[in-house]
């Protein structure tokens, strides 16, 4: 659908409207009594969520290039069918093709004070060229005082479908130096900044250097203690056995063309993932659903 058709079929006066950037990317702007949010059709990519009475929860780089085919830096990239680099020796875009393809908006409705959006993606010329031509994705967002993200993958082919997936969420914090991430105590992780050495998490996570950790075999809820913002961000999940915690630090941010070198201290990524030894093998005709549920708790003064 073009912009006019989207507004005609799905627009809700004062609540849901569609607009486009100068480069042609279409976005949904959401305003309800419970939240404000922005979602781009490219990648079904949420770039902003601000619950009523709260500061913004999602970080998006001020320097990201909002252009067709360009991955958005920040927000919540949907990574599929691989996480980070492809592991089978073949080439492909970082974090897969899902985040740089246009998704189809299939459903939009206001239920109570929450907006429900469902996006779908099937095989495309790009996916077929990368060897993926028998899959279907459905991605549901429930946006309100809390945020729920649900990604369903279906295998339409005869052979098993092997894939990794991630909701690569960038959380906005006052200062990454002053936060901790709880919930992964005692969990084994692969340290991508130390030759993938397996290590065990000792206590809550503090970000004190470039951090890129793949926590394996964990379904735990994580809590980001953003003390300077006087809040805790709870990240609960289902059917996800991997959690990734990432911040590039100053040295890594300087290498990212789509991030201002000063922005690295404004976020931490706590990602809902199935990857590495938690890669999904999906039988023919089967489906798999992964969900993350985000809530914000104020800390009393």
What labels describe this entry?
single chain; 301 residues; mainly beta; nine-stranded antiparallel β-sheet; eight-stranded antiparallel β-sheet; 3 helices; 23 strands; globular
What Rg is obtained from the alpha carbons, in whole angstroms?
A: 19 Å
Distance between the termini: 48 Å
Tell me what portion of residues adopts beta-strand conformation. Answer: 35-45%
- Spatial ordering of strands, largest sheet: 6-7-8-9-23-19-18-13-16
Number of helices: 3
Query: In one word, what is the shape?
Result: globular
Uncertain runs are: none
Rounded average pLDDT: 96
Helix-strand topology string: HEEEEEEEHEEEEEEEEEEEEEHEEE
Largest sheet, if any?
9 strands, antiparallel
What is the structural class? mainly beta
Overview of the structural elements:
The protein has helices at residues 3-10, 125-129, 249-253; strands at residues 16-20, 26-31, 35-40, 45-51, 78-79, 104-111, 114-121, 135-143, 147-155, 161-163, 165-167, 170-172, 179-182, 188-191, 197-200, 205-206, 211-216, 222-226, 231-238, 242-247, 267-274, 280-282, 287-298. It has 301 residues and is mainly beta. The model has no long low-confidence stretch (mean pLDDT 96).
Brief summary of the model shown:
With 301 residues, this protein is mainly β.
Describe the protein's topology:
Elements: H1 3-10, E1 16-20, E2 26-31, E3 35-40, E4 45-51, E5 78-79, E6 104-111, E7 114-121, H2 125-129, E8 135-143, E9 147-155, E10 161-163, E11 165-167, E12 170-172, E13 179-182, E14 188-191, E15 197-200, E16 205-206, E17 211-216, E18 222-226, E19 231-238, E20 242-247, H3 249-253, E21 267-274, E22 280-282, E23 287-298
Antiparallel strand pairs: 1-2, 2-3, 3-4, 5-11, 6-7, 7-8, 8-9, 9-23, 10-22, 11-21, 12-21, 13-16, 13-18, 14-15, 14-17, 17-20, 18-19, 19-23, 20-21
């Amino acid at each position: 659908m073009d912009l006019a058709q989207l507004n005609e079929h799905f627009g809700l006066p004062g609540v849901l409207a569609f607009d486009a950037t100068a480069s042609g990317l279409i976005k949904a702007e959401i305003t309800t009594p419970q939240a404000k949010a922005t979602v781009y059709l490219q990648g079904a990519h949420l770039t902003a969520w601000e619950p009523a009475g709260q500061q913004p929860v999602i970080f998006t780089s001020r320097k990201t290039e909002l252009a067709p085919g360009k991955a958005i830096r920040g927000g919540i990239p949907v990574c599929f069918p691989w996480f980070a680099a492809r592991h089978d020796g073949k080439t492909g875009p970082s974090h897969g093709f899902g985040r740089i393809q246009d998704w189809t908006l299939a459903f939009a409705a206001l239920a109570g004070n929450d907006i429900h959006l469902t996006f779908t993606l099937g095989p495309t010329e790009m996916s077929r060229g990368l060897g993926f031509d028998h899959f279907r994705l459905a991605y549901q967002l429930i946006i309100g005082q809390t945020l729920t993200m649900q990604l369903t993958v279906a295998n339409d082919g005869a052979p098993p479908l092997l894939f990794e997936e991630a909701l690569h969420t960038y959380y906005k914090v006052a200062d990454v130096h002053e936060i901790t991430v709880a919930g992964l105590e005692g969990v084994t992780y692969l340290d991508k900044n130390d030759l993938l050495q397996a290590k065990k998490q000792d206590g809550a996570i503090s970000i004190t250097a470039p951090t890129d950790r793949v926590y394996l075999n964990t379904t735990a809820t994580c809590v980001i203690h953003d003390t300077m913002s006087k809040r805790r961000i709870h990240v609960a999940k289902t059917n996800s056995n991997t959690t990734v915690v990432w911040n590039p630090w100053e040295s890594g941010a300087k290498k990212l063309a789509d991030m201002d070198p000063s922005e690295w201290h404004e976020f931490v990524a706590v990602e809902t993932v199935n990857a590495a030894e938690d890669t999904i093998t999906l039988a023919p005709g089967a489906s798999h659903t992964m969900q993350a549920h985000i809530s914000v708790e104020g800390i009393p003064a």
